Amino acid sequence: MKAWHSTKVLTETEREKIHESVCRILEEMGIKIESKDFLKILDEFGYPVDYDKEVVYFPKKIVEEYIGNAGGKKRIKSEIRFNAGGYPARYIDLETDEVKQHTFLSSSNFNKVVDALENIDTINCLGIPSDVPPQTQPFYKKLLSWINTSKPYFSGEITSVKELPCYIELCEQYCEYTGKKMKDVAKVNVHKDYPLFLDRSKAELILEALKEGLSTGVGSGIASVGGTAPVTLAGALVIQIVDQFSCNLINRAIYKSSDYGDLSLFFNLGVIDMRNGLNCTSRPEASLLILSMGDMADFYGAVSLSIGFGKTQAKTIASVQSGVERLSDFLTGVYAGATRFGSLGIISEPEGINSIVQLVIDNEIAGLLKRIAKGFLVDEETLAVEVIKEAGYKP
Asked: 240, 225 in Cβ contact below 8 A?
């Protein structure tokens, strides 16, 4: 019996139409990048570039060559993993139930709690400390991970070239102390502001990180239905895939890589609430898109599917709303074949406020989902016919 990766919601015709639309956007619109130096790298790699418009294009032939080499594989079945955090600035005090600004101490305490929770596997930023100078916050996020947890920590990235020298020095000192390698520690993750746009400052940061020999690359610009993506769900799905393929194609070029690697896809789409303008992730539309992204991962032959969801708009901890929204999102992801899940411990999205109580509850939900994902075995032994007969009518 298999619960994980057990759905198919798109017809073959629908998959083909989505793919054709993805190729059209990449070929006809491309990605705008506000850096001629960056565009030159893409030009030299073989992608068509319009320097006047500051746009790089990805012809269908190039896109399908990439898919043919990186995709075409079976989804890898592995234990599902959960991530806690997501850059909250505020938290709910455990003793008073007051909402407070995070400090270095509160963020440290959250990291220590997560480090002890068995079903949480990785950590993102669990609290932006307000009691340190704002310009040093990226470095403190990194420091918080090093001193409070042994779990993999996906945070502490920098956002400007000016921060790069201090970031390198911080990572060098850590590597000198621990014996770890810079390539494993000093990562510069840069996310586009919009799915089809990389601004000048972020392009420059990537180029400088490359010069310093650091691990870097272009990451997704989080799309939103009715915001940075069309209000139609099919159109939003197209933008989500375009966003990811463009990142992968650009990153191949900046490293001049002949290796295509394995194709992985993720889901990170919110839905704009037209009443208040908030980007909400726990909505019925999101569940439909998660299932559809699972189908497209099969269509392309992606080895894995990750999801940045499980978020809730609930305003109180341990609430019915929080449980329903988070569990329904997570369950949908399991059925779609996702293996990585995020944002445990946070309520009141999209602002994001976290809570120790919510972390503990979500850790239990994660354990429940890990069990569901395993399914169960049906064979002669587990059917237990002889055991049932031997036990009789009143065992």
From this structure: no
Domain count, the chain: 1
What pLDDT score does 101 carry?
97
**Do residues 34 and 203 make contact, with C-beta atoms less than 8 angstroms apart?**
yes
CB 120 within 8 A of CB 154: no
Let me know: does 27 contact 60? Beta carbons within 8 Å: yes
Beta carbons within 8 Å of 355's beta carbon, 6+ residues apart: 91, 92, 94, 317, 345, 347
User: Does 4 reside within a domain?
Assistant: no
In angstroms, rounded to a whole number, what is the distance separating the alpha carbons of residues 116 and 127?
17
Below-50 pLDDT ranges, the chain: none
Cα 157 to Cα 61: distance, rounded to the nearest angstrom: 34
Quick check: is 2 in a domain? no
Residue 284 preceded by cis peptide, ω within 30 = no
CATH classification of the domain holding 229: 3.20.20.480
Q: Looking at the domain assignment, is residue 311 inside a domain?
A: yes
User: In what order do the strands lie in the sheet containing 49-50?
Assistant: 49-50, 55-56, 31-33, 197-198
Helix ranges restricted to H, 89-180: 104-116, 137-148, 164-178
pLDDT of residue 277: 83
Range of the domain at 88: 12-391
Token pair 């992204």 in the structure block, residue? 293
pLDDT at 86: 84
Calculate the CA dihedral of residues 183, 188, 192, 196 and round it to 10 degrees: -30
Would residue 5 count as lying in a domain? no
Give the count of beta carbons closer than 10 Å to the beta carbon of residue 293. 27
* Percent helix, percent strand, percent coil in the chain, to nearest 5: 45, 15, 40
* Cβ neighbour number for residue 349 with a 10 Å cutoff: 22
